[in-house]
Amino acid sequence: MRLTHCHVAALLLVCLAPRDCLAQDPETAAQHASLGTVIIDAGHGGKDPGAVNRWGVREKDVNLAVALLLRDYVEGESDIPVVMTRDTDMYLTLDERTELANDYVGNEAGRQPSVFVSIHCNAAANIHAVGAETYVYNTTATDRRAARVAARENLGQDFSLDFIFADMRKRAIADLTEQFAVRVQDELVAGAHVADRDVRGGPFYVLFFSAMPSVLVELGFLTNRDEQARLATVAGQRALAQAIGVAVLAFGANDLDAWQEAAGHDE
Is this model's pTM higher than 0.85 or not? Predict the structure, then answer.
């Protein structure tokens, strides 16, 4: 199913609607009330292994392990519903990932804003490259490196939706998405102690078509000996998942309230 103009408009209204549109249970509204759903996308899977390094570590496995730990952290620290695009080693197209996220938000998540986090690992010809980077959607890549990463993660997928209308949707939440990305990147650096490769922009398919604040996280480089060893351990994966989880909950507890107040959504 392709998103039509009507689908996108409806999803935009759902994702950005004021949080007081529906009555909330007092117990669940007490903490992190302004975030409706956390959608976690473990990149690659099944017949698509993603990057595979010379030590035999497969990106799809690291992505899934961190995604599952992130789910556990969010569910353990809040009452926010979590949706996984995949929770096993299965193949999904990029369309299936974004359709699952958008359909769930439209049908199940109520009227509260939701977020989308896509988990990936990096690879580079330069074996000394290290660090995490967080991507937001942008029609123009921040630099040639960002363009190469987007091309790799897009798997040759063609953008066929009306660019003008879809770009309007993303622009409407661009500042909010940037705040989300900054929180994620800052927590990865401070909490998981990874090298900082900054927040970057690029034309990522899953970010373009997801109708909510969305980020794609490159956890680290599987092509670096030391970093890939950390990425392959449960301790390293847990540190990364917890850092992202802390950012998600902080974003839901703080940034959405400030954004809604500034935009007059609480009036």
Answer: no
Q: Among 263, 267, 245, which residue's Cα sits nearest to residue 35?
A: 245
Give the CA dihedral 212, 60, 154, 8, nearest 10 degrees: -20
For residue 50 the two structure tokens come to 């993603």
Separation CA 69–CA 227 (nearest Å): 19
Best CA proximity match to 78, nearest among 35, 17, 118, 14: 35
What is the distance of C-alpha 175 from the center of its chain? 15
Rounded CA-CA distance 206/95 in Å is 8
pLDDT tens track for 224-265: 999 999 999 999 999 999 999 999 999 998 887 766 655 554
From residue 38, alpha-carbon distances to 47, 112, 248, 251, 257 in Å are 26, 11, 8, 11, 17
Q: CA–CA separation, 171 vs 176, rounded Å?
A: 10
- The identity of residue 181, as a single letter, is A
Structure tokens of 154? 């897009």
CA distance 257 to 225: 42
Answer whether residue 24 shows pLDDT above 50: no
Question: Residue 104: what pLDDT?
Answer: 75
Least confident of 31-45, 171-185, 230-244: 31-45
Please name the residues in contact with 224: beta carbons below 8 A apart, sequence gap of 6 or more: 127, 128, 129, 130
Q: d(Cα 178, Cα 189) in Å, to the nearest integer? A: 17
Q: What domains can you pick out in the chain, each with its CATH number?
A: 35-262 (3.40.630.40)
User: What is the C-alpha separation between 55 and 233, in angstroms, rounded?
Assistant: 13
